Amino acid sequence: MSTDVLVIGGGNAALCAALMAAEAGASVLLLEAAPREWRGGNSMHTRNLRCMHDAPQDVLVDAYPEEEFWQDLLKVTGGVTNERLARLTIRASSSCRDWMRKHGVRFQPPLSGALHVARTNAFFMGGGKALVNAYYRSAERLGVRIRYDAPVDRVEIEDGRFVAAWVKGERIAARACVLAAGGFESNREWLREAWGRNERGEWPADNFLIRGTRYNRGVLLKHLLDDHGADRIGDPTQAHMVAIDARAPLYDGGICTRIDCVSLGVVVNRDGERFYDEGEDFWPKRYAIWGRLVAQQPGQVAHSIIDAKAVGRFMPPVFPGVVANTLPELAVKVGLPVERFMHTLQAYNAACRVGTFDHTALDDCHTQGVVPPKTHWARPIDTAPFYAYAVRPGVTFTYLGLRTDETAAVRFQDVPSQNLFVAGEMMAGNVLGKGYTAGVGMSIGTAFGRIAGTHAARAALDEGAKEHASA
Fold it and tell me: Does the keyword Iron apply (predicted)?
């Protein structure tokens, strides 16, 4: 079997690549490892796309210029990013929505619990599932062939050129290929290998939950890195890792398991001690650091503690919190050492310097004389009832991937392939060396999916023209 362009993967980046290649006139075959009912990878759990814009645009208010987007990204990554590729992503985010609409994606104003990103993020009507379904419908109309339950076991590469892929013993040849098969977050063995044991002798990865798909096992990524020597980017322990409800399912818990009240209270580990500034910055810019922070705590578990003053100020998770009328009672209910917990809460409450509380701004409510500090939104936790949410690290996607460039080409010993391209989670580490800010994963996947599809179609059609001329 053969095709002009083979797309390996079934989420946002893969679909963008398939659509662009088909629009360019190439024949396209898309291979999705999951069954049809679970198609879309992690994209089906998404909600929005971070967009640069210089003026108000329908659902986006005010302006979010390139430099502000870049500074936000620079801050969350700590500078571990390729500025050239990051700015390419940022600029692409300003012009993709008309194309997305053409393929059936609809946008809506953000829900009330997400108004703080109304300026920076465009929300999909119906969420990521609706986006994925719209793209699949459009792909089918354009003649893209789609196969489900089609995991790629290995690929043939000769001198940096893609030749064919193998799926359950079947060889599929193509003139060009786009790799968009996700990271390795659902591969427990690889997570264990990456994280190792900590100083307490624990295997932190054993306590990780996977926010997204169970099908992102990194088989193709490992094959490219280990067997074909593709150039790599990123730290295998770095990931979009969020503190999610400890009661969440092992896979596919999605957005509703995220605990969003962190900045409104305090977070303590199982020893009843705080370990990081809960009010460091706006939640959309900092929520993705908390999974890694919890991963470094004993037992990879923590508890987000709030009081009645916080209720109604955050997007409620799918599971209710543990409730008590006193703080000691709350500690007992969730299994925390009461004396240590009360010492922590009393020290925090005494340190609060309450000014004008405003959760939509970097307000002047802060702590003084306590470590770690709380920089904003610090108010005493003193109003019953009290609530606790147990959290564990929830891995969305990993950042170890394939090094690439502006053409989305896979590189071998720093030489770009002429017909093998990469998009989405498999290359996100070029832009995200660490950290995260809401919606930027979709920005990367959309930008590089479209770039990869365009270049793959061009490479395939050029190859086809050469074959025809020499026939």
Answer: no
Integer Cα distance of 344 and 273 in angstroms: 6
Q: What would the two tokens of residue 172 be?
A: 């599929």
Burial of residue 469 (CB within 10 Å: 0-12, 13-18, 19+) is exposed
- This prediction's pTM: 0.94
Nearest to 59 by CA among 16, 103, 111: 111
* Second CATH level (architecture) for the domain 240-394: Alpha-Beta Complex (3.90)
Measure CA 27 to chain center: 30
Q: Average pLDDT, stretch 25-43?
A: 98
CB-hemisphere CA count at 13 Å for 170? 11
The count of residues in the chain is 471
Q: Thinking of the domain 2-183+218-237+399-470, which architecture would CATH place it in?
A: 3-Layer(bba) Sandwich (3.50)
Residue with tokens 């580990």: 269
209 vs 392: CA distance, rounded Å: 7
Contact partners, residue 451, CB within 8 Å, separation at least 6: 92, 406, 407, 408, 421, 423
Question: Taking the domains of the chain in order of start, what are their residue ranges?
Answer: 2-183+218-237+399-470, 240-394
